[in-house]
DNA sequence: ACACGAGCATC
DNA sequence: GTCGGAT
DNA sequence: ATCCGACGATGCTCGTGT
């Protein structure tokens, strides 16, 4: 199939709003293309050239693309930059600059071109990638280029992601969504959308039925829904198990004999980063053929207290592993098991899986099993939640009893209850708006996509940045806030502002907005509280709570002193212990 | 007719 | 959105 | 300098369930 045919379908999909229609159009593509092409299309829609668990990335982002487009179109980079700004999209920007009529490449040719780009590595690889992409652009028509450049950015912007592909496969073959469930089941177990697409378009459900959980092949992790109180949870799922929620990273561990694989939540292969956990998987399990999951947390080896997320996350690295596994060890708190002795146990109920997990894991300093209580009373969930938060954890997760492990789903089998969902327990901060950035995608039309927020340093009489905020406003409010801010534009950084971050537009500090955040972090980028150690503070997961407070002036913003206090308070809470 | 979840996109 | 790590 | 992936919230639209 020609790439231009796929592009035509993409264009049609982009121009409809009905999901049913999008699915029908993509279904048609799957009907008309070969099975092999279906595989390639699936990967391209995922913004990849391989399944997630294969470490093959493009290594091409916006900056390299800017260069490649400029080269191919023989224009200055600034021309591309302004086109991107105007359209809020790299694809549309490239499309208007390209001038080439040929549409002769096949899907396979385009895919293999992108595959080559991904495979380029080593010295001067960036230049080589730019060169390759530039050549591809030169061989394509404007609208082909529109989608080509969006692929490595994983911003196809069609309104089509994995779930729509699953529907479209079914619609393409049988005319309705009746096969979706089984296709999805297969995808959730092998995590390879390309493989599933190829098998299904070629031979239908039959080969998919033979797909099963296999040690060494990551399973798409189950996800949790969110609610904000124990009562809501009980109303939803009744009596349930409640477990602590740790703020680390989620790992899926596979063991077959002496061989161990460790995958991240997004199926990245992280085997090798956590030797202490791999060792525990080899020596502390009563079963040598298993898949199980847990949350990895850093802990202080002397006090056994869990460490903050920022410390845990610093273990995500390839070098100097041995030193860090001693100085900054991790403990895996296990919470589920998916496969035992080659048997798929994801269909078992929660209680049975937990029973198995307890049998398998022999706890030590590197591995343990999450605590669990069972209750059908909302207030009990709330008090367990309060206990966990008191001891420094993120919250709790409630699990429907007797529910299977729902791979890949965000259903209501698991429900998280987090500290930050409660306004009383999270940090609301009054911030002054000192600038903004142009938006991308639909926010391009509004000319705004995020604001730069600052707090008041009363000692220095300066405003210090603490976060970019790009969520919380409704569409209407975005338009209104832009209008408001434009009345006070400043050509340069206002004198009373101390910022090392440069927004697209500076704004005189006038408007104060309320910002909610999960927590405060140390920041090398923001200036709030930046002292001799060159480290300031930032907000984790900031969101605005509404339009500016007209009754507040910048000096009424939260002060840096208050921020410091909040940061202290947050980190002196009695930390949970990593009991051995 | 309306509420709610699914899916997607923005940051 | 923030951050840390790899290249 | 740039890319990548670890952690996420939030708002909007459509389709479906009640």
Spell out the blueprint of helices and strands.
Blueprint: H1 3-14, H2 19-32, H3 35-45, H4 62-73, H5 77-87, H6 90-97, H7 107-119, H8 125-138, H9 142-153, H10 162-174, H11 180-190, H12 193-203, H13 205-209, E1 223-226, H14 230-237, E2 240-245, E3 249-256, E4 259-263, H15 275-283, E5 289-298, H16 309-313, H17 321-327, E6 330-340, E7 343-344, H18 350-360, E8 367-369, E9 373-375, H19 378-390, E10 395-400, E11 410-418, E12 427-437, E13 450-457, E14 462-469, H20 475-486, E15 489-490, E16 497-498, E17 505-507, E18 512-517, E19 519-523, E20 536-540, E21 543-544, H21 560-572
Parallel strand pairs: 1-11, 6-8, 14-16
Antiparallel strand pairs: 2-9, 2-10, 3-4, 3-5, 5-6, 6-7, 10-11, 12-13, 12-17, 12-18, 13-14, 15-17, 18-21, 19-20
Helix pairs in contact: 1-2, 2-10, 3-12, 4-5, 4-8, 5-6, 6-9, 7-8, 10-12, 14-19
This protein binds three DNA strands through helix 4, helix 10, helix 16, strand 14 and strand 19.
Question: Main traits of this protein?
Answer:
580 residues; alpha+beta; D-amino Acid Aminotransferase, Chain A, domain 1; OB fold (Dihydrolipoamide Acetyltransferase, E2P); 6-stranded mixed beta sheet; 21 helices; DNA-binding
């Amino acid at each position: 199939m020609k790439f231009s045919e796929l592009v035509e379908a993409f264009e049609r999909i982009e121009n409809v709003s009905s999901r049913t229609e999008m699915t029908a159009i993509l279904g048609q593509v799957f009907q008309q293309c070969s099975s092999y092409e279906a595989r390639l299309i699936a990967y391209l829609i995922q913004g990849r050239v391989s399944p997630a668990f294969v470490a093959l990335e493009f290594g091409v982002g916006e900056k390299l693309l800017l260069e490649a487009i400029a080269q191919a179109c023989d224009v200055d980079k600034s021309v591309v930059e302004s086109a991107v700004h105007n359209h809020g999209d790299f694809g549309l920007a490239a499309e208007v600059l390209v001038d080439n009529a040929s549409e002769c490449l096949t899907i396979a040719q385009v895919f293999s071109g992108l595959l080559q780009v991904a495979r380029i590595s080593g010295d001067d690889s960036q230049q080589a990638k730019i060169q390759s992409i530039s050549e591809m652009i030169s061989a394509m028509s404007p609208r082909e280029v529109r989608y080509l450049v969006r692929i490595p950015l994983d911003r196809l912007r069609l309104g089509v992601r994995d779930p729509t592909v699953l529907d479209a496969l079914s619609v393409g073959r049988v005319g309705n969504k009746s096969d979706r469930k089984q296709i999805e089941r297969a995808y959730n177990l092998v995590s390879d959308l390309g493989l599933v697409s190829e098998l299904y378009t070629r031979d239908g459900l039959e080969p998919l039925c033979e797909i099963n959980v296999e040690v060494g092949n990551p399973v798409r992790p189950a996800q949790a829904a969110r609610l904000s109180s124990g009562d809501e949870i009980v109303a939803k799922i009744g009596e349930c198990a409640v477990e602590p929620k740790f703020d680390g990273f989620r790992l899926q561990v596979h063991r077959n004999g002496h061989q161990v694989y460790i995958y991240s939540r997004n199926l990245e292969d992280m085997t090798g980063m956590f030797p202490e956990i791999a060792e525990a998987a080899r020596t502390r399990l009563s079963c040598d053929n298993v898949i199980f999951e847990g949350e990895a947390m850093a802990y202080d080896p002397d006090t056994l207290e869990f460490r903050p997320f920022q410390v845990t996350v610093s273990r995500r690295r390839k070098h100097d592993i041995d030193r860090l596994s001693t100085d900054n060890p991790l403990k895996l708190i296990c919470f589920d098991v998916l496969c035992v002795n080659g048997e798929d146990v994801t269909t078992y109920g929660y209680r049975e899986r937990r029973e198995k997990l307890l049998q398998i894991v022999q706890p030590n300093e590197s591995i343990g099993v999450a605590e669990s209580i069972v209750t059908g009373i909302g207030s009990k969930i709330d008090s367990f939640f309060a206990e966990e938060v008191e001891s420094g954890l993120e919250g709790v997760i409630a699990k429907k009893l007797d529910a299977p492990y729902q791979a890949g789903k965000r259903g209501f089998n698991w429900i998280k209850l987090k500290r930050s969902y409660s306004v009383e327990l999270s940090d609301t901060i009054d911030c002054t708006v000192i600038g903004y950035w142009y938006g991308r995608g639909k926010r391009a039309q509004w000319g705004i996509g995020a604001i730069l927020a600052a707090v008041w340093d009363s000692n220095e009489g300066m405003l210090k940045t603490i976060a970019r905020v790009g969520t919380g406003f409704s569409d209407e409010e975005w338009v209104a806030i832009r209008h408001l801010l434009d009345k006070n534009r400043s050509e340069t950084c206002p004198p009373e502002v101390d910022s090392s971050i440069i927004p697209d537009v500076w704004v005189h500090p006038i408007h104060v907005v309320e910002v909610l955040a999960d927590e405060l972090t140390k920041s090398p980028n923001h200036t709030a509280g930046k002292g001799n150690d060159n480290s300031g503070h930032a907000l984790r997961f900031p969101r605005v709570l509404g339009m500016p407070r007209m009754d507040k002036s910048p000096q009424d913003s939260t002060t840096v002193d208050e921020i410091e206090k909040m940061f202290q308070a947050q980190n002196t809470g009695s930390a949970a212990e990593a009991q051995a």
